[in-house]
């Protein structure tokens, strides 16, 4: 395996992502807040990696209210995409501006090597999908966003997904009608945000056939946490766990720091830490050492 990149081209990873939609097996896609987490996701046997806008913002110490830039998101997405052969799906928010901005977003994310991105129908700047006070743009405005994104796509395998936040604003019937319009406009994948119950997901699947659907299983939100098996039975093709790894990590970080501040030692946490040897495995230290040794011990044969 290459040391500084991955083994598959961006197009090959995009084809893998699309093939997963038709596989009959739900594609489980945890969020990664760093390239190292993406590598852990791959080794754990998942089908893809997600880059959450909320997580990129949080990692920068910002709330998820549309403050991050395209450059920041594309930069982090590119770092993550280089670290794994898995397809990477990116949260592109509202496309970072007007429809022309959505077009530029596709161009930048294609160059970053990711498999696809989803665009949402919230008013710009957006809010976290599970918070109250969201607003959605008229359907016609979202269709222009999608059209711009699709038109700019150079690689036809790049997945352009459409997210609708209308269920929490206008009701599930509106979300269904919007999803149908986005499907008909050429969206490859539909992401309906903040449905509440299994019955909601079943209703949505029945009402919006003939297009892959994505479910968001985020914690502490409005959605009942369903298992991947349950969602697969309903007929969903993709499930994301956008903030899970960050919440796990930050929960442990805060607990450990509190104890160290109180006791003056991390001794009680050593057994709960990732061991140095495991970190070195993920970082592929031995492969780097071998690469370095092979090059710097090379001696040309005499006479050449």
- Cα-based radius of gyration, to the nearest Å: 21 Å
Number of self-contained structural domains? 2
Mean pLDDT: 93
Could you tell me the number of beta strands? 8
The CATH superfamily of the largest domain is: Phosphoenolpyruvate-binding domains
Helix/strand order: HEHEHHEHEHEHEHEHEHHH
Describe the protein in words:
This protein is of the alpha/beta class and 304 residues long. Helix content is 45%, strand content 11%. It contains twelve helices and eight strands. Helix 4 packs parallel to helix 5 and helix 5 runs parallel beside helix 6. The model has no long low-confidence stretch (mean pLDDT 93). This is Methylisocitrate lyase.
Summarize it.
By secondary structure, this protein is an alpha/beta fold. It has two domains: 10-244, Phosphoenolpyruvate-binding domains (TIM Barrel), CATH 3.20.20; 251-297, no CATH class. It is 45% helix and 11% strand.
Write the layout of secondary structure elements.
Elements: H1 10-21, E1 27-30, H2 35-43, E2 49-51, H3 53-59, H4 70-82, E3 88-91, H5 99-111, E4 116-120, H6 139-152, E5 159-164, H7 172-184, E6 189-192, H8 198-207, E7 213-216, H9 228-234, E8 238-241, H10 244-263, H11 276-283, H12 285-296
Parallel strand pairs: 1-8, 2-3, 3-4, 4-5, 5-6, 6-7, 7-8
Helix pairs in contact: 4-5, 5-6
Cofactor: Mg(2+)
Keywords: Lyase, Magnesium, Metal-binding
EC number: 4.1.3.30
């Amino acid at each position: 395996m290459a040391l500084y990149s991955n083994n598959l081209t961006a197009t090959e990873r995009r084809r893998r992502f699309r093939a997963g939609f038709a596989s009959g097996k739900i594609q489980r896609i945890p969020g990664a807040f760093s390239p190292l987490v993406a590598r852990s996701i791959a080794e754990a046997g998942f089908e893809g990696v997600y880059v959450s806008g909320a997580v990129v913002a949080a990692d920068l110490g910002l709330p998820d209210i549309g403050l991050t830039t395209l450059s920041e998101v594309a930069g982090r997405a590119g770092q993550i995409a280089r670290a794994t052969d898995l397809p990477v799906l990116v949260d592109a928010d509202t496309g970072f501006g007007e429809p022309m901005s959505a077009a530029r977003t596709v161009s930048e994310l294609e160059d970053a090597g990711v498999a696809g991105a989803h665009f949402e129908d919230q008013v710009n700047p957006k809010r976290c999908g599970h918070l109250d006070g969201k607003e959605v743009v008229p359907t016609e405005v979202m269709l222009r966003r999608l059209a711009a994104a699709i038109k700019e796509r150079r690689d036809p395998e790049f997945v352009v997904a459409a997210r609708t936040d209308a269920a929490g604003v206008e009701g599930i019937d509106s979300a269904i009608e919007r999803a149908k319009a986005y499907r008909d406009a050429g969206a490859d994948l539909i992401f309906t945000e903040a449905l509440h119950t299994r019955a909601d997901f079943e209703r949505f699947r029945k009402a919006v056939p003939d297009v892959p659907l994505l479910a968001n299983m985020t914690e502490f939100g409005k959605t009942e946490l369903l298992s991947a098996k349950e969602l697969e039975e309903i007929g969903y093709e993709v499930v994301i766990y956008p903030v899970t790894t960050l919440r796990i990590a930050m929960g442990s970080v805060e607990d450990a720091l509190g104890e160290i501040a109180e006791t003056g030692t991390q001794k009680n946490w050593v057994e709960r830490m990732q061991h140095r040897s495991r970190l070195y495995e993920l970082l592929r230290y031995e492969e780097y050492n071998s690469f370095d040794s092979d090059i710097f011990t090379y001696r040309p044969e005499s006479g050449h």
